[in-house]
Amino acid sequence: MRLSLLLLLLLPGPPPALGMEDAAFPHPGESSQPPPRACPLRCSCPRDDTVDCDGLDLQVFPDNITRAAQHLSLQNNQLQELPYNELSRLSGLRTLNLHNNLISSEGLPDEAFESLTQLQHISVAQNKFLPRSLRVADLAANQMTEIFPLTFGEKPALRAVYLHNNQLGNTGLPPDAFRGSAAVATLSLSSNRLRYVPPSLPPALERLHLQNNLISKVPRGALSRQTHLRELHLQHNQLTDSGLDATTFSKLHCLEYLDLSHNQLAAVPAGLPHTLAVLHLGRNRIRQVEAARLRGARGLRYLLLQHNPLGAAGLPAGALRPLRDLHTLHLYGNGLDRVPPALPRRLRALVLPHNRVAMLGARDLAATPGLTELNLAYNRLASAHVHPRAFRRLRALRSLDLAGNQLTRLPAGLPAGLHTLRLQRNQLRALEPEPLAGLDQLRDLSLAHNQLRVGDIGPGTWHELQALQVRGGLVLDLSHNQLSFMPPDLPEALEELHLQGNRISYVGPEAFLSTPRLRALFLRANRLHVTSIAPEAFLGLPHLRVVDTAGNPEQVLVRLPPTAPRRPRAEGP
C-alpha cells in the first residue's frame, strides 16, 4: 500500500479541492437539502456525502465524520498521521484529498487504506511520505509534471533518484527540490521536458542523466558545484555552441564520461577537464576539430566523432596531438578522403568506415605502429591505390576490415599477426598464395560477395594457412561468389565453411578429405539436387554437426557421420 501512495505522491495536475470545478467535491449550494447534522467541528458538510475540512490547521484527524461520506477533503492542514480506526469506518469514500500536510511514512500504518474499497482518487502531494532513511527512490515512468520540495528534500541518506520517462519541465523542478539531501550520487532526469540544465543539483552527484530532453542551454554555473561528477549524459538534446561556454565543464575535475551526441554542436566544446576518458560527439555538426579545444583533455582515451560533416580538412595535422593516450578514434560516416595525418602514436583502434578514403600511402599509417584494429570498410579504396607497404609497420594489428571497397586483389604486406580479415563486398577476381603467406594466426577470413570462381583461386592458396592446424580453427566465408564446384585443397584447420549463394551443383566424395576438423558447412541457395552430394562425402568428418542445404532446387537430405569414438592412446614398448 505504501508503494501505491509513493506513486500517487507526485501525480500530475492540481489536487482536487473544494471550490474548484471538480465533480469529486461539489460546490456548496448545488443541493437544496440542508446540511447534515453530523459534521466535524469547524468543517463544512454541504451535502450528505461531502466533508470539507480545508485550511483549518488541523493537527489531528477529525472525528465524527459520517459513514456516508464519499468525498473528504483535508488539504492545507498539519496532519502528521492517519489513524486506521478512523479511516476504516469510511469504507464508502470515493475521493480523499490530503494535499499539503505533514504526513510521513511513519504516520501511515500499512493497512491504512485497505478498507477504502470504493476509493477512486487520492491526492497526497506535498507531504513527507518518503522517510528520511530512504536510500533509493525510483519514480520513473509516472507522467509526473511537478516535484515538491518535501518529496526528495531533507533526506540525508538518499543516494539515488530515478525520475526518467516523466513529463517534468524546469518549472516542475524547484531550486530547493534536493535541499537537505546532499548525498545524492545518482540522478536520472532523462526523457522529460527540460529546456535547460536545472540549477541547485545535489553537490555530491557522480552520475547525471539528462538525455532525451529539450535542453538547449547549460546556464553559467549550473554545474559548478558538482565537482564529484564522473558521468554526464546530455545526448539527444538541442544543444548548440551558444548554449555552452568555456566554464561549462571546466570545474568538473572528476568527469570521466561525457556524452554530447545527437545535438547541434558545430565545434568541440571548450574547457574540457583533463580527467575526461570518453568524449562522445557523434551526430553533431562539427566540421573541424581544433587542437586548442582538446588540449585540456589530455587524458582522453576514446573520442567518438561519427556522423559529423568532417571533410578533407576536418582533422588537420596536429589536431589530435594533445591526446597522447588516445586509444580509440571513431570517425564512422564523415567525409574524410584520407587517413588523418599525425595520429597519436599510442592509438589502438582507428574506425573509419563509410568515408571517402581513396588511397593508402606507404606512410599513412606509419605513425600508429600500435594499432590492433583498423576499420576502413565502405570507402573508395582500389587495389592500384593501396601501397604494398601500407600495412608494413602495423605489427600489432589483429583486425583489418576492408569490406565494401573496390579491391580486385588481396592487399600485399598484410601483418602476420592478423586474426580477422574482412574483404567482403569488393570486386575480387583472383586469389594468389603470396598475400596470405605467414598469416598463421588468422581465425576469420571473409571473402563473401565478390566475383571469385574456382579457377581464380591460385594453386597453393590455402596451403599458406596450414599453420593454423596447431593454433586453432578457421572460419572461411566464400558465400555469394561464382563458385561452380567445391574449392579443392582447403586448409586443414577449417572448422566453418560458408558457400551459400554460389553455383555449386555437385559435392564429390573427396571434397573434404583435407578438412577433417570441419564442424559446419553452409550450402544454402546453390544448384544442388537430390543426388548432388556423394554419400561418402562426409564420412571423414567426425566433428561435423551442421550442414545447411536449404533453398536449393530440390530438397537435399544429408546424413551426418556418427560421433567418432575416442581413440585409445598408443602404449609404449
Question: Could you please describe the fold and organization of this structure?
Answer:
- With 573 residues, the protein is mostly beta strands.
- The protein has four domains: 1-129, Ribonuclease Inhibitor (Leucine-rich repeat, LRR (right-handed beta-alpha superhelix), Alpha-Beta Horseshoe), CATH 3.80.10; 133-196, no CATH class; 216-356, Ribonuclease Inhibitor (Leucine-rich repeat, LRR (right-handed beta-alpha superhelix)); 428-563, Leucine-rich repeat, LRR (right-handed beta-alpha superhelix), CATH 3.80.10.
- It has five helices and 23 strands.
- The strands form two sheets. The chain has an 18-stranded parallel beta sheet, with no helix packed on it. A five-stranded mixed beta sheet has the order 1-2-3-4-5, with no helix packed on it.
- The longest helix has 7 residues, at 2-8.
- The chain starts with a helix and ends in a 25-residue tail after the last strand.
Q: What's the gist of this structure?
A:
The protein is mostly beta strands and 573 residues long. 4% of the residues lie in helices and 13% in strands. It has helices at 2-8, 84-87, 149-152, 291-294, 468-471, and strands at 44-47, 50-52, 71-73, 95-97, 121-123, 136-138, 160-162, 186-188, 207-209, 231-233, 257-259, 278-280, 302-304, 328-330, 349-351, 373-375, 399-401, 420-422, 444-446, 474-477, 494-498, 520-522, 546-548.
Radius of gyration (CA) equals 35 Å
Indicate the CATH topology of the largest domain: Leucine-rich repeat, LRR (right-handed beta-alpha superhelix)
Task: Give start-end ranges of low-pLDDT stretches.
Answer: 1-32, 564-573
Share of residues in helices? under 10%
Provide the residue-averaged pLDDT.
Answer: 88
Overall geometry comes to elongated
Write down the secondary-structure element order.
HEEEHEEEHEEEEEEHEEEEEEEHEEEE
The termini sit apart by 81 Å
Count of distinct structural domains: 4
Number of strands: 23
CATH homology superfamily of the largest domain: Ribonuclease Inhibitor
- The CATH architecture assignment of the largest domain turns out to be Alpha-Beta Horseshoe
Indicate the CATH class of the largest domain: Alpha Beta
What's the main sheet like?
Answer: 18 strands, parallel
Helices and strands: which structural class?
Answer: mainly beta
Estimated share of beta-strand residues: 5-15%
Number of discrete helical segments: 5
